[in-house]
Amino acid sequence: MGYFIIGVLIAFLAMWIISVQRKLVGMDENINYAMSQIGVQLSSCFDALTALLDLTKGYAAHESQTLIETVKSRRSVITATSKPEDVLKQEGVISEALGRISMVAEQYPELKANENYAKCMNAVDSYEKMVRTSRLIYNDSVTRLNRELRMFPTSLLAGVFGFRQREYLETVEDLQVMTF
After folding, report:
1. Would 176 be classed as within a structural domain?
2. Separation CA 96–CA 153 (nearest Å)
3. How confident is the model at residue 179 (pLDDT cuts 50, 70, 90)?
4. Residues 6+ apart with CB under 8 A from 119
5. What's the pLDDT score for residue 180?
6. For the domain that residue 53 is a member of, what is the CATH number?
7. Is residue 180 assigned to a domain?
8. I need a surface site. Which of 2, 27, 71, 95 has the fewest CB within 10 A?
9. Per-residue pLDDT tens for 53-81?
10. Rounded Cα distance, 15 and 3, in Å
11. Burial of 87 per CB tally in 10 Å (0-12, 13-18, 19+)
12. Which pLDDT score, from 0 to 100, does residue 61 have?
């Protein structure tokens, strides 16, 4: 009878360990997925930004070419394994480019009146809104994982399985797209 009870306890412990590991893997994958979504949306935002830059070529060729080269050289792909600071850098590139495009548009009212310009600005704005939503999802997923990692008895197993607390995507400054 004693061996039976010990066997049941060992089986229960093994099932609990497996359950904790599976839960942590699921939470970690949710974070990776959210970061991947941010990467997809930032990539789409860069595509819309590039189209916007192409429109400005006809008005301020030198400024546009310099900005296109800057954006291309500083653009990087955000993947599931990217860090929050990588996202912030990419958002900074977009914000800087939009600021410079706005300056060009102020100098050329006909550019601001261009229908394609308005469509591109709307596309950039839409992608930025999607990035903000994905940031919320990412941070929520990080909160859930970090909370679980700090709770006893999961905290005992988390380190053994290689799970560590993840960093939040802090909002240093929200990207703001001016509507023209």
Report:
1. no
2. 46
3. very low
4. none
5. 33
6. 1.20.1440.20
7. no
8. 2
9. 888 887 787 777 888 888 888 888 899 88
10. 18
11. buried
12. 78
